[in-house]
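Lab notebook: predicted structure, single chain.

Context: the supervisor wants predicted structures on file for every construct in the current expression panel, including those that have not yet been purified. This is the next one on the list. No modifications to the sequence; it matches the entry in the shared construct table.
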Amino acid sequence: MTGQTTAAAPRGRAFLRTATALQTLTLLFQAVTAGMLLTSSDGYLMHDVGSKAMYAAAMLYVLAAVLAWRPGGGSPRPVLYATGFLLLASAQVALGVAHVSSVHVPLGVVMFALSTLALVQTLSPRLPLRPAARS
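Prediction complete. Output recorded below exactly as produced.
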């Protein structure tokens, strides 16, 4: 590994952590504003703006996953997760626009859970892949 590759790896992981945290926070905001839709006239506007922020955060998550993978030589698994999440976000936006609440709301819950799990995974310290050999 070159010095540039080893220096890029921690920055890529930090960007991935930040993007995952931002995505999780935007999904939490969406859950809060979805509840506000029931009680406030401002809820719709906030949920609409939040949906755009959530979609942007999902795209940022894909970018961060690619940057953590390619230059740093990390695992491609986060790229697959991020791409799948962007597909879920696309479906979520389409369902919201079509007012299909019976699928939109449960999918939002699933997305928040998945994003939280991804955040926990990116924040956890790396464990060795296999135990050390005993002598």
